[in-house]
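Collaborator request, handled under Task 6.
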Amino acid sequence: MKSIRNLAVVAGAASAAFALAVSPASAVASTVWTVTPSPANITAVNSGNIVLSVNGLAMTCTQSTAAATLQSATGNPATVGTINSIAFGAAGAPCTSLLGNVTTVATTPWTIVAQDYTASTGVTKGYVGNVDAKVTVGACNFRVTGKASGTYTNSTGKLAIASTAGELTVVSATNCGTAIPVGAKPTFKGDYLAKVSGTSTIPKIVGSNP
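Structure tokens returned to the collaborator:
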């Protein structure tokens, strides 16, 4: 417990490194969302590290995968996808922190929600919603819920997630001391590359206002 409290003091500024993916200046709040193909089963693999940070304690995964379903939708915001499963870490490549290995178990489905679209860049701004995950690091166990802002780029298939403080909340915590108390506001950052399952096809999301 003492090591957790000390860590919170020493590493207090680390979470400031995470910033929201900036919305393009010409983004439009669309009402019709056309997904191609639709519906489609999607697989996604991380590009770079995936990091959850709470009060300066960074929990880093070098491997993460997800499976989702995308479909066309209407409205704003509009749910254009459902993340059916998401895994953090892999055999031989566990997620890590200064307190040791980290285990994360997600409760799905999570949602992929679209809000704004920039036609010139093919970028959709929105968020991953219904986030719910239980995290174990050392003797500390806590649960995080909420949403995480992000963007999706049609040309690359990149879903770039970069939450801001306040979007996610620690709703329960056991043996976490003052480092990760109930009410703490974690940040989550990571990039995923999406393809239609079993193919090299990158799915497209286009917003419009017909």
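The cover message to the collaborator said: "The first strand starts at residue 28 and ends at 29. Residues 1-25 have pLDDT under 50 and may be disordered. Please let us know whether this matches your experimental observations."
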